Amino acid sequence: MTALFHGGPDGYSAAVLIALAEKGLAFENHQVDLAAFAQHDPAFLAINPAGQLPVLRDGDRTLTEAFFILLYLDERYPEPPLGGADPKARYAVQKWGKYVETHIAPNLAIVDWDQRGRTPDAAQQARLAALTPERQALWTQALNGFSAEDVQTAKAALAKAADRIAEDLARQDWLAGAGWSLADIIVFPHAARFASLGLTVPAAVADWLARVAQRPAVQQAIGRGDHAPAVATMGPERGRWG
Amino acid sequence: MLEVYTWEPNANSGKPLFCLKEKQVPFVFHYIDMGKREHFSPAFLKINRDGTIPAVVHDDLVMTESTPIMEYIDDAFDGPALRPADPWWRWRMRQVMRYMDNQVAPALAMLASNRLATPQFQGADPAELKRELEKIPLPERRAAWEKLMFNKTPPADLAESARRVAAAIRHFDGLLGETPWLAGPDFSLADINVFATFYGLPTNQPEQVNAQTTPHLWDWLRCCHARTGLQQAFQLGKGYIGQRAAEARKLLGVAEAVA
Questions:
Q1: Is A156 on the interface with B (CB under 8 A)?
Q2: Tens of pLDDT, residue by residue, chain B (259 residues)
Q3: What domains sit in chain A, N to C, each tagged with a CATH number?
């Protein structure tokens, strides 16, 4: 039995929902209520001590980290193939997975939190103590508010990310080459949020976003995909040393 | 044509060297002297505008992300497989590499560069250092180098890095108590990734890493250091890294496999 714990059709959770739809896999659907900070409930921390979504259960295996879940799904359920047609395309898939993790997701979370972050109630705040030290430190920073410089740095990183997406799309239709792949699936739900956060994207990126949104599996998994998620939440940690 | 532009067989810089030697893939090695900050030189920036090493060029494909490069090398070339066949162990391999790349290696780099590089900048002309900083393309890299050059790394950051390294040593010792290698029954990219940064711990951190405190990690270090491919990679170094690896082998009682 396959089960997915996710935070709704946004960001990393959306990427895994799209991949499951592409693969035509049935799964038990567990949406965790981010508005209630349910990702920090003891019941969920027992599944993932980092308190992060999504989490995939495949039989007795528990898998975290959306990009690695995507690779796992593609390797375990090869049809239709989404991992890239040749080594060059597969490098592009790996490159974009890494880029989202280190450059896009942490900065997107900071900009989003700066605009829409909400203070948890006392009981929710008390639960932060149960998180891993790294997650606790990040949430403490968020609750104290990111500095103007932090937010500016994050916005600059996202603007650069939009340019890099556009560069790859200038050479090819999809991010890993001629075919739609996990590279598109991991970048799309993040890049789709740029406009709502006040970031303009190059025309090539806007065109690509529109093409992705029209794909049947994307619409099946996340609807139009152009809405803002219910609440802001913390992404991966930004690099501490370069 | 396969070309590798990198510094020593050490940390990110060493990842492609270790992988290619393990698979016995021939390549052209272009040494980029990080001590002279050659990775910020106009010649290197033509290959990788971000000024990060390693850069690997295979025919018309330019690759600059070290862990994706590791996957590519195993994917594109013949030789012994460096990734488990089972998707579950592959997931584990990638988790180990992510933990290493995001949490552990940067913490060790912060500690090591503050110990080794910061003293070299003391007494230098601040205006000259500022001009050097201007050559660094990535803002996040520039910020780290600025802390190094002007000795501005906050003590709390150094303490947090030391905590992370200690936690990682315990974590990996635990994993290696369950399976002989970090991603299961077979040697994989996860072992190369961690070894590229941990190879010198027996001599650098003898209080934390030794046969009594971390027996599983100790055995694993012996098994890694004994591998011909990994020893061959160390021979590519031109600086102190090869010496550091030889000292670790001696302490571990590992024989020299390469003449």
A1: yes
A2: 999 999 999 999 999 999 999 999 999 999 999 989 999 999 999 999 999 999 999 999 999 999 999 999 999 999 999 999 999 999 999 999 999 999 999 999 999 999 999 999 999 999 999 999 999 999 999 999 999 999 999 999 999 999 999 999 999 999 999 999 999 999 999 999 999 999 999 999 999 999 999 999 999 999 999 999 999 999 999 989 999 999 999 999 999 998 7
A3: 2-76 (3.40.30.10), 87-214 (1.20.1050.10)
Residue B194's identity, in one-letter code, is V
Beta partners for residue A63, in sequence order: A56
Name the residue among A134, A208, A198, A129 with its Cα closest to residue A164. A208
Residue whose C-alpha is closest to residue A12's, from A173, A147, A186, A231: A186
- HSE-up of residue A159 (Cα within 13 Å, Cβ side): 9
Instruction: Report domain extents, chain B.
Output: 1-82
Residue A69: both structure tokens together: 């879940």
Is A91 in contact with B71 (Cβ distance < 8 A)?
yes
Binary contact (A133, B163; C-beta < 8 A) = yes
Interface residue A16 vs chain B (CB under 8 A): no
CB B231 within 8 A of CB B257: yes
Sheet holding B28-31, edge to edge: B28-31, B2-6, B55-58, B61-63
A105: closest CA of chain B, how far (Å):
13
In whole angstroms, give the CA distance from residue A52 to residue A66.
10
Q: Is B98 on the interface with A (CB under 8 A)?
A: yes
CA-CA-CA-CA torsion for B122, B124, B125, B130, nearest 10 degrees? Answer: -80
Residue A34 and residue A7 in contact, taking contact as beta carbons nearer than 8 Å: yes
CB contact under 8 A, B138 and A91: no
Interchain proximity B94–A90, CB inside 8 Å: no
Domain B1-82, CATH: 3.40.30.10
Write down the pTM of the prediction: 0.97
CA distance B72 to A235: 27
Dist. CA A119–CA A142, nearest whole Å = 9
Please state, in angstroms and rounded to a whole number, the distance separating the CA atoms of residues A239 and A138.
Answer: 12
For tokens 């995909």, name the residue.
A225
Summarised one tens digit per residue, pLDDT across range A90-125 is: 999 999 999 999 999 999 999 999 999 998 999 999
CA angle A135, A139, A141 (to 5 degrees): 120
- Is ipTM strictly over 0.95? yes
Interchain contact A164–B (C-beta under 8 A): no
Q: Determine, for residues B72 and A87 on separate chains, whether the beta-carbon distance falls below 8 Å.
A: yes
